[in-house]
Amino acid sequence: MIEQSHTPRNISKATIRCEQRDGHILAVKDYSGRTGLMKRYGRLTLKNELRAYLRLRGIVGIPVCFGLRTPDVLELQYINAVPLSRMKPGAVAESVFDRLQEIVATMHARGVANTDIHRSNVLVAENGDVYLVDFAHALIARCADRPGILVRLGMELDRYACARIRARYLQQPAPAPAGLFGLLYRGGSLLKKTLKGIKRIVRMRSG
Questions:
Q1: How many domains does the chain have?
Q2: What range defines the domain where residue 186 resides?
Q3: Which of 9, 151, 168, 188 is paired with 143 by a 20 to 30 Å CA distance?
């Protein structure tokens, strides 16, 4: 079954739709309906995503990217699979998380950190194949075997995200982030919670 379109959660996200062309099915990420700063943001993220996919070309579990149709439209291989977010904890084979870990390790060996691995970006096909999608915010090292500190931190974030997902679905205790990464992660989480609290207060007062 092909999902024809996906409505973005907010204006910073692309509209995603499926198209058939020359007997092939494409997944299309489209920012052409945006204006102003959001259109500029979209073009930057699509260009960055294209760079990541080109670096990762040939890795099993990473969709094929067919390039930019226009500066606002990116064409990708359509993956007939279900996001992990639609699957229940306790009902997913451990091999899925082993395979995700392998994909991420191979991705890191190419000098790319996804930085945004979550359940909606992990796809699982009926035959058990696993795919990782959405590289809009990827960090890409100039030299794959010598990533800088920012890319290395992004890789730590990827590994931690995979560990959290594994623990959630195998119903195990959540891992605790450690070291410098752990310190930055906890600081970022605290800032995120603070900003959410401020937004909640503003909405209550304005209402």
A1: 1
A2: 5-190
A3: 188
Whether residue 198 is contained in a domain is answered as no
- Is 201 within a domain? no
Which pLDDT belongs to residue 206?
Answer: 66
Please write the tens of the pLDDT for every residue from 26-41.
999 999 998 999 999 9
Determine the pLDDT at residue 8. Answer: 60
Q: For 45-93, how does the pLDDT look when each residue is reduced to its tens digit (9 = 90+)?
A: 999 999 999 999 999 999 999 999 999 999 999 999 999 999 999 999 9
Residue 202 lies in a domain: no
pLDDT in the model for residue 10: 63
Bridge pairing between strands 112-113 and 82-83: unpaired
Name, in order, each residue with C-beta under 8 angstroms of 28's C-beta and a sequence gap of 6 or more.
16, 17, 18, 19, 69, 73, 74, 75, 76
The CATH number covering residue 27 comes to 1.10.510.10
Nearest Cα neighbor of 70 from 33, 24, 37 is 33
